Structures are given as structure tokens and as C-alpha cells.
């Protein structure tokens, strides 16, 4: 069975309301960090290292920005990385630890840690021994990033502490806004953009990027007790959570799964297409980087197709040479937008 792709309306309207909300709040002017330059430079260097270690695609794309913008978006990435890591299973938990004991102890710990991080991440003058918060505070002040977007991102990642299933695509899009569209909206302030007319395109690109992540990471998310695929759409293709469990366990792909993934990929590609005009609303020296980020993530969808929609036994990716080979075409595309 297949579904007809429908023009989204409800989720887009809701997400746009959220995206404009931080702009309605009066911006509190903050001074740029004036601490020892070596301290601040070390903070930015740590953000550089965090980005390089955790996201090769983001690192490559951000390298295409002018130096000042480059280090700012890497501070943004590090802020997002810390926020996200605080809600996941800590690395210090031993696999032999009793699962129930860990859940009882860690859930409250993670909530408390996220509450503490929220205060740090929104502090205009964070302690000098909090380098990511320090670099992020300096970036927010330099580029006048509305605090509301940072708050929305932290609220978005916090959903993983209480929600592990999503009934509809509208529900999933709301989650994607919190953890991904907000990143694009903050990045726009760093890069520069023409005006509020660019916001709907950034929102849509964020949803496309996050759904790409979700399609790629089905097995990893399942191992962490999460299923982000819309349950009603799984059901429409004759699938259920039990089928995901079996796929992760034995790596088998059947026609129902292929049809479901084709539907998901088609919609996600359409979102990328609809978001593309927004890149032309960015400052010209930032278009190459954002086009690269979008195109390299979009290529993951083709890699999933090329491997018969098997996201159970392998993690779809684009290798370093593949990324480099795409850059000339991406550059031309960024100039044509």
C-alpha cells in the first residue's frame, strides 16, 4: 500500500508561528566577551574540535564560510552538541549496569544537567571554565541571535527524555523543528539574511535535514529505545514497531519496507527542493556553505537507495572523497540560486 504525498499545511503553519515568536521578544543587547583573548580563543578552538570530531559533514560545510562566521557556526554546533548529549545515555554507564537502576538514576540526572546547561547557555557572562558556553555567549552577542531559538532547541532535545514515539508526520515535524530548524534559524543570524521572508525556507530545510538523519539512524535510534518514524505511516504500509525490531535483529528488507522508505525519501527530497530558494536570501559569502550542507545531507538519501534501503545493518554516509567530488557542482549551484 502507498500513501499520496499531500501538501503539508498544519505542521508548516504551527512551525512558522514558533519561528517568528523569538523575533517578537525585545532583544536584550549584550556586550561581547572581553576576557583574556587566549581564554576566548581556546574556547572557540574547543568548539572547532568538537565539530570536527562529531560531524564531518558540518565541519566540511562550515569550512566554506569566512573565518569569523566559520568559528561562530562551530560554536553554535558545539552548543547544540552539548545540549543533545546531555539527554543521551552517558558514556560512563557500563553496559553491565542494571538497566532499571540506570534509568531511575539517570533520568533525573539528565533533567538536572539540562536545566543547568540551559542557564549556562543563556548566560551572557558564563564562567571562564565553561568554554562552550563562553564561545556561544560571544557568538550570540556578536550576531544578535535571539535567545528564544536557543531555548526552543533545548526544549526540543528535552523531548527525548519523555517521548520515544511519534504518531504522525505533523508530530515528527514539530520535533524536527526543535532540534534542527532552530539551528538553521540561528545560523541565519550568523551568515546574514535579507529579512523575515527567509524564515519559512530555513524551517523547511531543518525538517528535511532532521528527517534525513532519522531515516539514516533507524537502527541506532532503535537501540536507544526510540522510534521516530511516524506510526500511522508505518501502519499504512503494513509495518509496525515489531517489524523495525525484526529488521534491526536480522537485517532483512522486504517490499513493504522498500515502499515505505521510497515514500519517506520522496517527501524529504521535496522538502529540500522547496527550501532551496531560501539560500538565495542569505548573504552571498554564506550560500556555498549552506548549499553544501544541504546537498551533502541530501546525498545520504541516495546512498540509502543504493543499498536497497538497508538502514538496519549499515549507516548510510558519503565518504570524504565523495564530498570533495561534489563541491564544484555545489559551488555552481550556490551561485545559481
SSE succession: HHHHHHHHHHHHHHH
| Global morphology | globular
How many strand elements?
A: 0
Distance N terminus to C terminus?
A: 37 Å
The SS-based structural class is: mainly alpha
Q: On the 0-100 scale, what is the average pLDDT? A: 90
Number of helical regions: 15
Low-confidence stretches: 4-8, 91-102
Radius of gyration: 20 Å
Measured as a percent range, the helix fraction is 55-70%
Biggest sheet overview:
none
Report strand %: under 5%
Structure description:
It is a single chain. By secondary structure, the protein is mostly helical. It has helices at 10-24, 37-54, 56-62, 67-85, 99-121, 131-143, 147-158, 169-191, 199-216, 218-223, 231-236, 241-250, 255-275, 287-306, 320-336.
Question: In short, what is this structure?
Answer:
This protein is mainly α and 337 residues long. Helices cover 68% and strands 0% of the residues.
Write the layout of secondary structure elements.
Layout: H1 10-24, H2 37-54, H3 56-62, H4 67-85, H5 99-121, H6 131-143, H7 147-158, H8 169-191, H9 199-216, H10 218-223, H11 231-236, H12 241-250, H13 255-275, H14 287-306, H15 320-336
List keywords for this structure.
mainly alpha; 337 residues; 0% strand; 15 helices
